[in-house]
């Protein structure tokens, strides 16, 4: 069965510090991968998605970046965090086939920028 | 314009009763799909049910059913026999195929509280 891991679960970082959030998927190959951010009481905002190694599409231009160094690894980074980067970050995957469209989400990382 | 609209910020239901969570959508894509996800207080998003735009029958998954009314562009989630564990945020989402990439759009969610 497939599982998705995210870490860390919670993070408190000062403004201007770097960020690295990691997501890994097990039990599947060539998944489509996604990073979302959810502000308190709001829906999900898609940040990045990837259909393959090294292929990253950005939905929201900002000080965040993403990388996919391996097939089942997706990393969200920032060189300098802003207060507005606080939120709940969710990684998700879906099969790359066209017969299944649902996404499966990781447990999330709650980021507080102080 | 919002592509997914969930007009109910909060809903309350008595345990064992049925509840309907509303979702309307806007798309010009002839091929699309609609999802419902549940987000308990732990934060993880859980996939519940999917309806494709060409599916003839309404989707069902256990106690969850999707009331799909294509002409009205609505895709309401019906939860039968509510349980205390159903208390959570519920998000409606849509996928479109325009442009060949799969980018889902999420609504703002509805908070459901189930009373004993």
Topology:
The complex is a heterodimer of chains A (114) and B (116).
Chain A: E1 3-7, E2 10-13, E3 19-26, E4 32-38, E5 44-52, E6 55-58, E7 64-70, E8 73-78, E9 87-94, E10 104-105, E11 109-113
Parallel strand pairs in A: 2-11
Antiparallel strand pairs in A: 1-3, 3-8, 4-5, 4-9, 5-6, 7-8, 9-10, 9-11
Chain B: E1 4-5, E2 10-14, E3 19-21, E4 24-25, E5 32-39, E6 46-52, E7 60-61, E8 64-69, E9 74-79, E10 88-96, E11 105-106, E12 110-115
Parallel strand pairs in B: 2-12
Antiparallel strand pairs in B: 1-4, 3-9, 5-6, 5-10, 7-8, 8-9, 10-11, 10-12
Architecture overview:
The complex is a heterodimer of chains A (114) and B (116). Chain A has 114 residues and is mostly beta strands. Chain A is 0% helix and 57% strand. Chain A contains no helices and eleven strands. Chain A has strands at 3-7, 10-13, 19-26, 32-38, 44-52, 55-58, 64-70, 73-78, 87-94, 104-105, 109-113. In chain A, strands 2, 4, 5, 6, 9, 10 and 11 form a seven-stranded mixed sheet that branches. In chain A, strands 1-3-8-7 form a four-stranded antiparallel sheet, with no helix packed on it. The mean pLDDT of chain A is 91. Chain B is mainly beta and 116 residues long. Helices cover 0% and strands 50% of the residues of chain B. Chain B has strands spanning 4-5, 10-14, 19-21, 24-25, 32-39, 46-52, 60-61, 64-69, 74-79, 88-96, 105-106, 110-115. In chain B, strands 2, 5, 6, 10, 11 and 12 form a six-stranded mixed sheet that branches. Chain B is globular. The termini of chain B are far apart. The model of chain B has no long low-confidence stretch (mean pLDDT 92). At the A-B interface, strand 5, strand 9 and strand 10 of A face strand 5 and strand 6 of B.
CA-CA gap between termini of chain B:
38 Å
Stretches with pLDDT under 50, minimum 5 residues of chain A? none
% residues in beta strands of chain B: over 45%
- Residue-averaged pLDDT of chain B: 92
- Shape label of chain A: globular
> Got a strand count of chain B?
12
* SSE order of chain B, one letter for each helix or strand: EEEEEEEEEEEE
Q: What's the total count of β strands of chain A?
A: 11
Helix percentage range of chain B: under 10%
Report the major sheet of chain A. 7 strands, mixed
What is the C-alpha radius of gyration of chain B, as a whole number of Å?
14 Å
Helicity range of the residues of chain A? under 10%
Secondary-structure element series of chain A: EEEEEEEEEEE
